[in-house]
């Protein structure tokens, strides 16, 4: 699951395109299937969204929640791909993008009535 935060006036107009860019990167680097898009957008009032100096109102936070198992190099490749694709497709500078990957053990995930360590029919590999 991916959660994206930004100032609503800047985030709302690009939500669909940003979702496409994020998903394309997830497919390219992690091998996620087309139908595995779980994105949540949190548009915020500027008065509720404090961010570091040197950033613009395009500052966007992307939190990627996933089951643990990906290699360090794979996670770094995903982050770099996102920086590159967001800049190329949306003209948002990497300085205005913050990406965090939050990994949890498979047994801490619950979906389709089972836990992640019990699932046997994923259409993608977690260990990449």
Automatic annotation (TrEMBL):
InterPro entries: Tauto_MSAD (IPR037479), Tautomerase/MIF_sf (IPR014347). Transmembrane segments: none annotated. It holds the Pfam family Tautomerase_2. Gene3D superfamilies: Macrophage Migration Inhibitory Factor (3.30.429.10). It comes from the Bacteria. This is Tautomerase family protein. It comes from Colwellia echini.
């Amino acid at each position: 699951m991916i959660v994206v935060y930004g100032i609503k006036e800047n985030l709302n107009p690009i939500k669909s395109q940003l979702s496409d860019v994020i998903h394309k990167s997830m497919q390219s680097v992690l091998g996620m299937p087309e139908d595995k898009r779980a994105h949540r957008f949190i548009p915020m009032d500027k008065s509720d969204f404090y961010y570091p100096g040197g950033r613009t109102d395009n500052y966007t936070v992307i939190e990627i929640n996933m089951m643990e198992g990906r290699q360090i190099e794979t996670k770094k490749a995903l982050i770099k791909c996102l920086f590159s694709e967001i800049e190329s497709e949306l003209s948002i500078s990497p300085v205005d993008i913050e990406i965090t990957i939050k990994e949890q053990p498979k047994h801490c995930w619950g979906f389709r009535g089972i836990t992640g360590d019990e699932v046997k029919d994923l259409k993608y590999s977690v260990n990449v």
